[in-house]
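Let us work through a complete example step by step.
Step 1: write down the sequence.
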Amino acid sequence: MPELPEVETTRRGLEPHGVGRVVEDLIVRERRFRLPVPTGMKRRLKGKRIVAIRRRAKYLLVDFEGCSGHLLIHLGMSGSLCVVDRATPPRKHDHIDLILDHGKAIRFHDPRRFGIWTWVEAPEEAHRLLAHLGPEPLLDEFCGDYLFMQSRKRRCAVKTFLMDGRIVVGVGNIYAAESLFAAEIRPGRAAGRVTRAEYHSLASHVVRILRAAIAQGGTTLQDFVSGEGEAGYFAQELWVYGREGQECKRCGGILKGKVLGQRASCYCPHCQK
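Step 2: predict the structure and record it as tokens.
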């Protein structure tokens, strides 16, 4: 599933092609997603100028001139958005085209159809998909003290805690695993037993790793491509994610795997305590 760096990479790729452009048409070849595409979406968007493309957690929000609401997009498990010439023939699973006035289209590709294209009325933070989200990890309110206070008396695994969108948004399986390795914290430890000093280290590594992943264009493991159709290269920087049974790049020991919160987790039993 695309995580925060992949969604932010997509946003940055779409922004120069979309902001300031007017929607000429909306072509919906398939409406059946995690939420059905509203039937009135074309009428709502046609003729409207895009004024901003923003990100909240793993959601993209597209703002239009003169509209109080927003187009909300989620990439789902395997979705991607890219900019193509409007005349480019659609491939299999190219389900939606947002046609713009400069001959380009923002095209949504989603083989599994777990994505979302819907309309959110203002205030956006009241919508059920956004209402219970925690802070953004790249903003100042996210820090070690915040994680420490939120974790008190919690018995769940620290990795599960870090991936909880009510605690902090956008830190999915890949970046939680990598951040915990960098902070030398075993992912299965109870969140409430991690010290304040360790949470300071963990928070700083979360921020560092997310920023590095964004700079590398995200992580392409299977389906992800950026808004400009390019693969992400952060997969080359992974220390533990997906490397169960391989040697630890730091100590040479064998990385082990464990299932936490129904998600596969990989860690080094020597480096992480």
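Step 3: interpret the result. The chain has a mean pLDDT of 92.
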